[in-house]
Amino acid sequence: MKLKSTNIAVAAALLSMVCVQGGASIAKQLFPAIGPIGTTTLRIGLSAILLYLINRPPIFSFNAKQWFYCAIYGLGIAAMNLIFYMAIQRIPLGLGVTIEFIGPLFLAFALSRRWLDVLWASLACIGILLIVPWNSNDIDVIGLLLAFTAGTFWAVYIIIGGKVSKIMDGRHAVSTGMLIATAFIIPFALWDGSIMSLTPELFLKGLGVAIFSSALPFSLDMIALGRLPAKTFSILTSLQPAFGALSGLLFLSENLSLLQWLSVGCVVLASMGTTVFGKKTAVKPQ
């Protein structure tokens, strides 16, 4: 039974990553028209509406603790997405995702208790060091710093997502968190003003971003976070750079160097290692 639960969690996490990076490729195509703030607002706002209509969270029956965690969860979602979109406006998608992964990687180190956990996290760390173009004069330092900051909020998202999934229905938590994220991001959108340039075509693209980048993956993450330890989920998400690099290559014609592709291989291997050994641990008798 535990093995089946772990398999479901791993499948949910992988599908979530495919959706997120595919949606990010669509989102980046919206940047020239409405910018990262407008794109983030469209993504989060439409996701919030979709999730609320589908899940119908009983928001008036939540207790103070549930509201507290939903609020932090929602603010984490808004900050993570807004800052990440600002980052990939300046740097390639694959590079941005990899630098952002420093947040979950640090979390994996902090929560590690076995030498194997440290091994896989260290391998992912090597991958991250390899992907950064240290000798390039064209590197956008601001873009890298923004991606790193987004990674910090990604770690918060993992921690709070795990906690909130234990005290309430995950679907209700995601729906409520997205409503809070929308309320947080709207003032930025009004200040920026780019959302006023929205057209029917841009709206449809934004709807696709909302479904694939937020509504579907955040729901899948709740399934995974409710069944996997935070450290296992953190290292498992090291597949994000691979999906990001492939999405950037296929949909945005963003190429990475051979060394950077090697770094992607390191983080993929780290992800495979933690998944396989996580399954063995999960079925061990208590």
From TrEMBL:
Subcellular location: Membrane
Membrane topology: Multi-pass membrane protein
Keyword Transmembrane helix set for record: yes
Keyword vocabulary terms for this entry: Membrane, Transmembrane, Transmembrane helix
Principal place of residence: membrane
Keyword Transmembrane helix: yes
Pfam families referenced in this protein's UniProt entry, alphabetically: EamA
TM regions (residue ranges): 37-55, 67-87, 93-111, 118-135, 141-160, 172-190, 202-220, 232-252, 258-278
Domain EamA: 142-274
Tree of life domain: Bacteria
Family the UniProt entry places it in: Belongs to the EamA transporter family.
PANTHER family associated with the record: EAMA DOMAIN-CONTAINING PROTEIN, INNER MEMBRANE TRANSPORTER
Protein name: DMT family transporter
Organism expressing this protein natively: Sphingobacterium kyonggiense
